[in-house]
TrEMBL record:
Its cofactor is Mo-molybdopterin. This is Sulfite oxidase. Keywords: Metal-binding, Molybdenum, Oxidoreductase. Residues 56-229 form the Oxidoreductase molybdopterin-binding domain. PANTHER family: SULFITE OXIDASE, MITOCHONDRIAL, SULFITE REDUCTASE. SUPFAM superfamilies: E set domains, Oxidoreductase molybdopterin-binding domain. Residues 1-10 have a biased composition (Polar residues). Residues 278-368 form the Moybdenum cofactor oxidoreductase dimerisation domain. It comes from Streptomyces nojiriensis. Residues 1-22 are annotated as: Disordered.
Length: 373
C-alpha cells in the first residue's frame, strides 16, 4: 500500500475551464474570507468587522500573554520580545489602506481557481505599533543581510507544500521610514482581533496584503534572497498561460484602483442598482501603493466619455485611500457605471483585463449595472 502524503489533498494551481462556474472549494474559501461591503466605502476608517479578511490556513490559537517575537539570523544581538517589551518602544499609528493582491481575480477570463474576489478585498485601518526599523536597529542588522523573513504562527499545506506562512522584505524596505513598516499590536485603537493577526502583525504601507504577515512570531535576517513558497511560487505575475513554471515578476506594491459606493438601492439577487431619473450623487474611494491618486473619472457609456470627479487631497495619511465624488445625470434606461483612478506616477486602471496565472493585481475598472426608472 502506498503511503499517504499531503499532496493527496493539495493539488497544483489550475485555471478554470471555459464556462466553468465557481466550484464548492472556491465557495468555501469565499465564505471564510469576506470582503468589504461596498457601501462601507463611505467610511474613511473601515468600521470593525467590515475590513476584508484573508486567511490562507486557520486562524491560529494565540495567547497574547505568552507571546514572544524573536529577531535572529544575521543580527549582532538576537532578541526575544514579549508584548510588554514591544509596548516599551515608541508607539506609532499609520492609517493604511490594505488590499489583497488577488482582488479582481474572479473577474478574469479564464479564471484562476483560488479565493474568488470580485473587487471588494480592501479596507482601511489605523494600525498602531512599533516601527520595524527601531526593532531591527536594536538587534543590529549585519552588513551581509539582504532580506528580513517574517514567519506567522499559522501552518498549512498549499499546492502540495506544507509550510508556515512566511514572507520576506528587502532590508532597505524593512528598515526604511518612507513608507515605515510597523510591527502592529492594535487596530483602530484596540488589540488586534484574531482574524487580523492577534497579537502582532506586520503592516507594510503601499504593499499588497500578502506582505502584511499576521500572527508574527519570528523575524530572521538572511544573507540570500528568501525562496519560500509565498515568495517564489505564489505571488508572482506569470503572464503566459502556457508557462506555469516561469519565474514571473514579484507582486509588491498596490496598483491604482477606484471603487464607488453603488448608488440607489439593489436588487437582492442580481445586485443591479435602481435609481430615479435626475442628478445622482456618486462617491467612493481611490488608492495606489505608488503614491497619491491624482485623478478619478466616471463613465456611464462604457468609456466613451468621462466625468471628472472631485478627489480629496492625500492629506497626512499618505498610505490611505482618498475620497472622491461627482454627480451623474441619470436618464431612464439601463446603464453601466465605470470608475477609474490615475495615480501620481501616471498609471491608470485598464479598461481591458491584463491576465496573469495567479490572478494578481487585476485592477480592471469596476462595472456597476444600474437601472434608471
Ligand atoms: N500569517 C499570515 N499572514 C497573512 C496571511 C495569512 O494567511 N497568514 N494572509 C495574507 C494576505 S494574502 C492578506 S490579503 C492579508 C489580509 O489581511 P487582513 O485579513 O487583516 O485583511 O494578510 C496577509 N497576512
Ligand atoms: Mo491576499
Amino acid at each position: 500500500m502506498e503511503q499517504a502524503s499531503v499532496q493527496d489533498v493539495s493539488t497544483p494551481g489550475r485555471i478554470a475551464s471555459p464556462g466553468e462556474g465557481i466550484g464548492p472549494d472556491e465557495l468555501a474559501l469565499a465564505a471564510r474570507n469576506h470582503g468589504l461591503p461596498l457601501e462601507a466605502l463611505r467610511y474613511e476608517v473601515t468600521p470593525p468587522g467590515l475590513h476584508y479578511v484573508l486567511v490562507h490556513y486557520d486562524i491560529p490559537a494565540a495567547d497574547p500573554a505568552g507571546w514572544s517575537l524573536t529577531v535572529g539570523g544575521r543580527v549582532r544581538t538576537p532578541l526575544t520580545l514579549d508584548l510588554a517589551a514591544l509596548h516599551a518602544f515608541p508607539a506609532v499609528t499609520h492609517r493604511v489602506t490594505m488590499e489583497c493582491a488577488g482582488n479582481g481575480r474572479a473577474r478574469l477570463t479564464p479564471r484562476p481557481v483560488s479565493q474568488p474576489w470580485l473587487v471588494e478585498a480592501v479596507g482601511t485601518a489605523d494600525w498602531t505599533g512599533v516601527p520595524l526599523r527601531l526593532v531591527l536597529a536594536r538587534a543590529g542588522v549585519r552588513e551581509d543581510a539582504v532580506e528580513a523573513v517574517f514567519t506567522g504562527a499559522d501552518h498549512g499545506v498549499e499546492r502540495g507544500v506544507e509550510q508556515d506562512y512566511r514572507r520576506s522584505l528587502p532590508v532597505a524596505a524593512a528598515t526604511g521610514d518612507d513608507p515605515e513598516v510597523l510591527i502592529a499590536y492594535a487596530m483602530n485603537g484596540l488589540p488586534l482581533p484574531p482574524q487580523h493577526g492577534c497579537p502582532l502583525r506586520l503592516v507594510v504601507p503601499g504593499w499588497y496584503g500578502m506582505a502584511h504577515v499576521k500572527w508574527l512570531r519570528e523575524i530572521t535576517l538572511v544573507d540570500a534572497p528568501f525562496t519560500g513558497f509565498q515568495q517564489s511560487v505564489a505571488y508572482r505575475y506569470r503572464r503566459a498561460a502556457d508557462a506555469p513554471d516561469a519565474p514571473g515578476e514579484p507582486v509588491t506594491r498596490i496598483a491604482p484602483r477606484a471603487l464607488m459606493v453603488p448608488p440607489g438601492f439593489p436588487d437582492f439577487m442580481s445586485r443591479t442598482r435602481v435609481v430615479h431619473p435626475g442628478p445622482v450623487p456618486l462617491e467612493g474611494r481611490a488608492w495606489s501603493g505608488h503614491g497619491a491618486v491624482d485623478r478619478v473619472e466616471v463613465s456611464a457609456d462604457g468609456g466613451r466619455s468621462w466625468i471628472r470627479a472631485e478627489v480629496a487631497p492625500p492629506g497626512p495619511h499618505r498610505w490611505a485611500w482618498q475620497a472622491w465624488s461627482c454627480v451623474w445625470a441619470a436618464a431612464p434606461g439601463r446603464h453601466t457605471l465605470t470608475v477609474r483612478a490615475t495615480d501620481a506616477e501616471g498609471s491608470t486602471q485598464p479598461l481591458e483585463q491584463s491576465w496573469n496565472r495567479g490572478g494578481f493585481g487585476n485592477n480592471l475598472v469596476q462595472h456597476v449595472p444600474v437601472l434608471c426608472c
